[in-house]
Structure formats: structure tokens, C-alpha cells
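Dear colleagues,

As part of the handover before I leave the project, I'm documenting each prediction I ran so the next person doesn't have to rerun anything. This entry is a single chain, and its sequence is reproduced below.
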Amino acid sequence: MTGPGLFHNNITAGGISRHLIADDHIDHHRWMRICSEGGIAGECRTCGAYLHPHHPTEHDGRFDYEAECPNGHTINAPGGRVLARSSAHSHMPGGWWERRTRALKQEAAA
């Protein structure tokens, strides 16, 4: 299968494919392998496009991982920690907050 949906039910809340994670951290060897192969790190939670990994950067003996979709959205795993998806207004897909507010109002009215 190709295209969005390849990782259906196999990605974290942040969009990283679960096969790249071991013990809630990025598996460095797997990440480096997909970097060298030009592989896919997951799916963008904003637009649904594939995430392409960047080579990790090292800071004081700690590796920071980043992947980016073709639309410029990025995900980060500082120190290899897989972060939960932010609920910040600017990080949610367009119209999400409006749909959520409408659903909560309908639920409260019922």
C-alpha cells in the first residue's frame, strides 16, 4: 500500500511510526536506516502527508530527531523522547476546534 494511510493504526499520537520506537524512545539504528534509505518516518498529523526523517542532530551527547512532511510541518523527538501531540490551537487541523466546540454544545443540550 502506498500513499497516506500506509501506517493506519500503527502511528503514535505525534505521527511517528511505531516500528521506529522502542521503550517510548526513538530507536536510533532504525531511524538511521530509514534516513539512509530515504524511507518514511510516519504521517503528518496536520495534513496527512508522509513524514520524511532528517538525520538526527547531536547536542551534548543527546540526539534530537526531526521529520518533516512536504508541506513543511515538522515533528520533533528531543533526546529521542516521543512527545505527545500538542492540543495547542495552532497545531490542530483546520476546523477542528470549531467541530469540537459544536459537538460539546450539542452534547450539553441533549
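The chain has a mean pLDDT of 79. Residues 96-109 form the longest helix (14 residues).

All the best with the project,
I.
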